[in-house]
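Quick start: read one record
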Amino acid sequence: MKWQLITPVTEAQWQGYYQLRYQVLRAPWQQPPGSERDALEAQSHHRMIVNAAGDILAVGRLHLVDAETAQVRYMAVAEQARGSGLGAKLLHALEQQAVAIGALRVVLNARESAVVFYKKSGYQPGEAQPALYGIPHWQMSKALYLPGSFEQRQSWVQELTHTWQQTIPLSEFMQLKVQSFDGHRLQCQAPLAPNKNPHHTMFAGSIYSMATLTGWGMVYLQLKALGLPGDIVLADAQIRYLAPVKQQPAASVNLLQISGDLTPLARGQKVRQQLKVDILDGDNKVGEFEGRFVVLPVLPANGQAQ
């Protein structure tokens, strides 16, 4: 299915946007037209997905609750588009907007039937909310940044660099370094000179290694922020090259490109994370790496997970 993510602009788009909201979220419970809107529409961020014919397939809204918290509301997917993954893509776009406006977390009130969907997108369930039209709702939240101060993050980056150099000698030969880490996004870089191929572009093996280590590093930093020990292993990966890396090799991953909960590690359970790393040449995206990492609990001598 061909689709496009847009912000409603024209009168027809706005009408269709609100009509889908009403059709999915209010009409089945005999609510009057207009009940699908509230007083925050003008100060909110609106997104919708349309197909090639201009039919509206999914809609959603985001607004700031306070300086650090954004709320998603009025998520609706047309009946013919359900099960296509468009709801997850729309939610991801709203989360990206939340990061862009400076929010540290996203909250929402999920219908009971949608709790599993939001859990798959990394949301944690909270307290039960008042029922709406007889439908149970649950508050859910998702952190956009890892916990920790600037000083702690700097310390974790130093530990990561030391771990690379001591346990993965290739990283030192490549001269791989952390360029930036703000608790949401990790970007690493390596100079072209020691990683060149005969064509004077970056060697494919170096690109793969840079992306793998960046993904591995993001898992490592999450474990540090959560205070969880674990052994990180790459279980599976694939890479797609879009263009050669000619000048400024880098790799970038952020929390919105990750799925998988690490907290069961505290109970001695093996955990998995799927993540996507963007391969960059300066500011230009030139490739994609998708990896599945497994984290094994660290067992002390007595055999009990610590």
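The chain has two domains: 3-143, 150-296.
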